[in-house]
Automatic annotation (TrEMBL):
This is Chaperone protein DnaJ. Binds 2 Zn(2+) ions per monomer. InterPro entries: DnaJ (IPR012724), DnaJ_C (IPR002939), DnaJ_domain (IPR001623), DnaJ_domain_CS (IPR018253), HSP40/DnaJ_pept-bd (IPR008971), HSP_DnaJ_Cys-rich_dom (IPR001305), HSP_DnaJ_Cys-rich_dom_sf (IPR036410), J_dom_sf (IPR036869). CDD domains: DnaJ, DnaJ_C, DnaJ_zf. It comes from Micromonospora musae. It is found in: Cytoplasm.
Amino acid sequence: MSSKDWIEKDFYAVLGVEKSASEDEIKKAYRKLARESHPDHNPGDPSAEERFKAVSEAYNVLSDSGRRREYDEMRSLFGSGAFRRNARGAGQPGGVPFDVSDLFGGAAGGGERRFGGGAGFSDLFSSIFSGGQAGPTAPRGPARGRDVETEVALDFGDAVRGVTLPLTLRAPGVCDTCHGNGAKPGTEPRTCPVCHGAGVTNRNQGSFSFSEPCRNCQGVGTVVEEKCPECHGTGGVTKTRTMNVRFPAGVADGQRIRLAGRGEPGERGGQPGDLFVQVKVRPDEIFGRTGDDLTLTVPITYAEAVLGTDLRVPTLDGAVTLRVPPGTPSGRILRARGKGVVRRDGQAGDLLVTLDVVVPARLSDEARAALETFAEQTPPAGREHLDARVRRVS
């Protein structure tokens, strides 16, 4: 994307959020729109792919605090009419409004270049206010590829123990025909004769000197004379890729795994973006999780709670015996140390077992008689203070 387009596009509107939206709100909106417009969910719909690219483009800027700050500042400056050719400004005699097309060389300046590679707006505006002196400009090079995000569902046990799974994506990838340089096999891109490989050109505008993306090479620094027939000179094509992804032990629901350099390739050999894998953990039938601890609820009988017992309970990789002491109330938690989630430092969380005393709904005549005998020989429950309050208010 060109710098001009970066300013003119309303990324907040693309994601459907307010300018004051938080990072979480932006992320939530992006995930919803990315799922709805993903090419895998809309086969054969080119407009969906364009929407997906627009949503990813907006998220790449707004999810980065530095880019978002620059974007907001530039939009605010141009939107408020802060730049004027004459000091008297618009609406005053002799004042001529500043045209953003003058700054970026007009809309007819050729192809677009995506934001993300090389210098940004800080470099651009340092040259704007250089007082007419255009300093040396560092080469920009090919643009960095966009980041890609996908979602993977893991079984509870795999998330706790860690697992390596094949991940299949249909997303932009490096063109196999030209290996990403955009040139027809047997040919090579050549250095741009206009910017001499810098990717930018300097231009005087009144008392100012501006650096702008080279319109001859779209800011890449090289020119492809004979384009690759497969990717048409971009260096990337949409294709199905399968890769093995390692999910570390203890990965949690909602966690994002970053795979550096596995996202969308950059244009014509530029640095690829990253792949972010959002983890969804399927719930287990019996186990729960709190941080690094596993949780389990085990029912016991009234007699086991009163008399005590040895309780055999499952773990993720076997079983363990816990001692239930006599007189255990319902809701007590027993701890099996080291039977939880293994941490990155090699230490493990615990298995927390909550005891649930089950009260039978029906009793045999023999059991009822035995329970009545037990009740006659059992001391009161210790609620005398409650009985006293009832007598006072009665």
